[in-house]
Each structure stands twice: as C-alpha cells, then as structure tokens.
Amino acid sequence: MDIKKVGVIGAGAMGLGIAQVCAQAGLSVVLNDLNLELVEKALKRIDKILGKAVEKGKLSSEAKTAIIAKINKSSELKDVADCDVVIEAIVENMEIKKSLFKQLDEICKPDAILASNTSSLSVSELANVTKRPDKFIGMHFFNPVQMMKLIEVVRPLQVSSDTENAIMELSRKLGKEPVPVKDSPGFVVNRILAMGSGEVPFMLQEGVATPEAIDKCMKLGANWRMGPCELGDFVGIDISMATRLTLYKEFGEDKYRPCLLTTQMIRAGFLGRKTGKGYYIYDEEGNNIGNNPALFK
User: Fold this and answer.
1) Which among 268, 284, 289 is positioned nearest to 212, based on CA atoms?
2) So which residues are the catalytic ones?
3) Is 297 contained in some domain?
C-alpha cells in the first residue's frame, strides 16, 4: 500500500508529535481537533521544537519550513476523507473513541486504514464498531513521539495481514521500530510499567521514601532513564490512572488496584507537568523545583 497522506485526530502532545514525525517523513498530514485554536497551538509547538533543531544545526531552516508546510490544519472530520491512514490520538475513553471511529468509518475512503493510539484499551472492541475491522489496527506511540523509537503495533483479532504489513512499513518510514503485539490490556510496555510505577503512590502513602529518592533509586539501581515519579508527571497522573483502571477492570486482579493517593492527587489537580504539580512541583517554564510537599502532610 502506497501511503502518502495521513490524518491525525487530536492535537495534544501525542497528536502533534505524530503529525510532526509524519511530516518529517515526507507525508502530507491533516492535523484535526474539535477547536482550530488547539491545532494552531500544536503547530506553534511543532515550530518551536523544529526551531531548536535548527539552532543546534540538526535541521536547515528550509527543511523546517517544508515540514510545517506539510501539516494542514483542520477542525472538521471531513478533511481526512481522502487520507490513506487516519490515526486517532484523543482522550483515553472507550465510548468517545467508539463515537469517533463510527464517524470516521462513514467519512473515510473504503481502503483507508483506521488506527488508534490507545495505550491500553481493547483495539478489537474499537475495530468492531466499524465496517472495516480488517483495516483497523493499534499504533501505540510513546511520549515524546519525536524521540521515542518504539511503536507497539497492536493486532486486533479481526485485522488482515495486509493492514498489519502496511502499518509496519509506515512505522519504519517514520523512523520508528515497530513491534507487533497481541491485543491485550496495556499491551507490553504499559502492563509492565503499571506494576512498577503502580507501587509508587503506595510507597509514598506509607512514607517509604520521597519522589526524588524513589526516582534516584530506580535510575541508579535499575538503570531507568527516568524515575517512575518523573515519568508519571511527564505522562500525566490521570493518564497513568486510566491505564491502571483498564488493567484492573479487564483482569480483575488486585495487583492492579489503584492507590487512593492517586485518586486524591487527581481530585486536587495534581496531574503532573501540565498542571504544575504532581509528584513534583514545577515553575512556569516547566522546570522541576522539588518534591510536592502536599503529598507528605
């Protein structure tokens, strides 16, 4: 399959990253969100990221201009009608995703592949709401998309080998390392991370160690590039919680039970970097300025 045009639904951190790597690979991109202001904000972020690459001599100003020019702004789903592949990167909510894919199924051309960037939800269930389950697949990118090499290519039961092969080829074209995985809650990475990172709030609740101490232990003792508290704040406490709740619901095992402290953090608005407070506190420029003392009252 000759993939030349990609639609990306959702202009958040994941969506803008996916749009950027697609454009850098020479593909025409339609970046869509409900509000055009969100898309424009995403493009400014992409422009800033590419600008830093130019400053460091890793990219020419001409190449930067060409990449930006390949990304078309959109606030209407009909704009992705002629895309070869449409990748969904919206809120991690099954019913909202189902509603979106029902619309995309009607709008997109018959041979278009629909893909979800879900981090833990059932791709088979999402595929089943469309009339093209054989052309539906999971493409789980990792944050930040521009830097992380892995894409978990999630195979629902209904997917055809042609669709899987096309997405594996597309992933390599984006400069990524695609790994095919079975459709299972949390797939590979998040299922393992949920077990390790899921212990963090329990340890904080028990007073075992501070976020800084926990991160230092895991970076120096387990060779993690980011500690679990840093990672939690980077991804978003609410996003991590959604993944854990999915695992708890799907498997029904107590080992996936979320901690009350995590629920309290979400209720307090301590979602990580995006709100300025999570396990750590951040200044206006997003710099970590220390442990969040509210977690130790």
Assistant:
1) 289
2) 119, 140, 152, 190
3) no
Give the C-alpha separation, 241 to 258, whole Å. Answer: 7
Domain of residue 201, CATH code: 1.10.1040.50
State whether the Cα torsion 170-16-246-229 is positive or negative.
Answer: positive
Look at the chain and report how many structural domains it folds into: 2
- The answer to whether residues 172 and 202 belong to one domain is no
Range of the domain at 176: 5-182
- The DSSP bridge pattern shows strands 5-9 and 28-32 to be parallel
pTM: 0.90
- Token match 């597309």: residue? 170
- pLDDT single digits (tens) 67-119: 999 999 999 999 999 999 999 999 999 999 999 999 999 999 999 999 999 99
Give the integer Cα–Cα distance in Å for 179 and 150. Answer: 7
Nearest CA among 157, 144, 155, 164 for reference residue 273 = 144
Q: Give the dihedral sign, CA 270/224/140/175.
A: positive
Distance, in Å, from the CA atom of 197 to the CA atom of 218, rounded to the nearest integer, reads 10
Q: How far apart are CA 267 and CA 277, in angstroms?
A: 12
Question: Who contacts 237 (Cβ-Cβ below 8 Å, separation ≥6)?
Answer: 262, 265, 266, 270, 271, 272, 278, 279
